[in-house]
Amino acid sequence: MRLKRIACCALLAFALLEVTGTAAGESTRLGPVDTTPPEPDFTPRLRQDMEWVFRHGILGTCRTVDNETPVDCRLVALRKGRQLSARRVSIRPPYYGYAIDLPISRPDRRRLRRADPPVMVKLRLTVTDPAGNHATVAKRIELCRKERCFTHGGR
Predict the structure, then answer these.
(1) Residue 150, domain member (yes or no)
(2) 56-113 tens-digit pLDDT
(3) How would you classify residue 57: left for phi > 0, otherwise alpha for psi between -120 and 50, otherwise beta?
(4) What pLDDT does residue 70 have?
(5) 3-state class of 120 per DSSP?
(6) Domain range for residue 115?
(7) Where are the alpha helices (DSSP H) in the chain?
(8) pTM
(9) Do residues 10 and 53 both lie within one domain?
(10) Which of 20, 74, 122, 123 sees the fewest Cβ atoms within 10 Å?
């Protein structure tokens, strides 16, 4: 009876291995597990006009160096450790990049207006590939008054 139970459990484990292709994080039968994180290509406008941002949102782009892999992007705007805005998008081929605008709420707009411009905001982009690997890139941008910026989104 005990031998039957052990044989049944072994058969069940083997069947589970065939269905999922992995056994507790081990490599698949087709090859090793992908552990290489994606390489994000993040180019936000470094100086953005404050009033333009209040109307349209903070602009940022999400791309990867390898344009063939579908990725999920999460862009977060932070000021003094407080989250101003966040957005998540998915990029699937044949698209290679995505322009993301982060709308800012009314109380945060009020806080930013009262702050002494230029205001520094940190943008953090997290890119996740289908295997679950992720990479994070952060850049600081400056929100300034129109007369102090070159254009509404100049570098």
Answers:
(1) no
(2) 999 988 888 877 788 899 999 999 999 999 999 998 887 778 899 999 999 999 999 9
(3) left
(4) 87
(5) strand
(6) 40-144
(7) 2-20, 50-56, 106-114
(8) 0.71
(9) no
(10) 20
